[in-house]
């Protein structure tokens, strides 16, 4: 499965050129022309990596990144700054703000691709193929889900408050989470990596407005999103 990237830049020509180049390299790229639209896409899509311009009207790249780093869902998501400001002081400020890489315009698109791949590889290596987060908490959630499932027929179903469109793979992951399976088990069932399962679970959290597997399963049962 190709990595999903979010590109935020207010220059149409550059935005279209970078999107086309990255897609030619095999990435899936969503684009936004400003930070507010970028934030909306970020929550909807939960990409693997963000590339954002630094100097944008209304909300600049620094503020956009600050908002990301304050949200637990995006705290460690790789971020690349693109900017016409290449002074050392600006670069230092960018790294202090929490960006992972900093490219001055004009830049070589091959260098951008190399940085993107390097950051994605590092993130994959860091997450490993283990059951990364707090295993005790995860095991407790699995127990709560199984307890909930035993009394699922007493849960009244109502239409979801907002329309939720799930991809076939997201639906498959949700169905398996709702059966009380852990990430490793889901990965084996779907013949994918644990990292991909974690990504899909994060997207399900974003789409349903939930913060834990227990909340996700209850939401899915209450609103008929899983059988």
TrEMBL record:
Domain Response regulatory: 4-120
PROSITE patterns referenced in this protein's UniProt entry, alphabetically: HTH_LUXR_2, RESPONSE_REGULATORY
Residue stretches spanning the membrane: none
SUPFAM superfamilies per UniProt: CheY-like
Record-listed 4-aspartylphosphate modification sites: 53
UniProt keyword annotations, A-Z: DNA-binding, Phosphoprotein, Transcription, Transcription regulation
UniProt domain HTH luxR-type: residue ranges: 159-224
CDD domains: LuxR_C_like, REC_Ycf29
InterPro entries in the cross-refs: CheY-like_superfamily, Sig_transdc_resp-reg_receiver, Tscrpt_reg_LuxR_C, WalR-like, WH-like_DNA-bd_sf
Protein name as annotated: Response regulator transcription factor
Organism: Laspinema palackyanum D2a
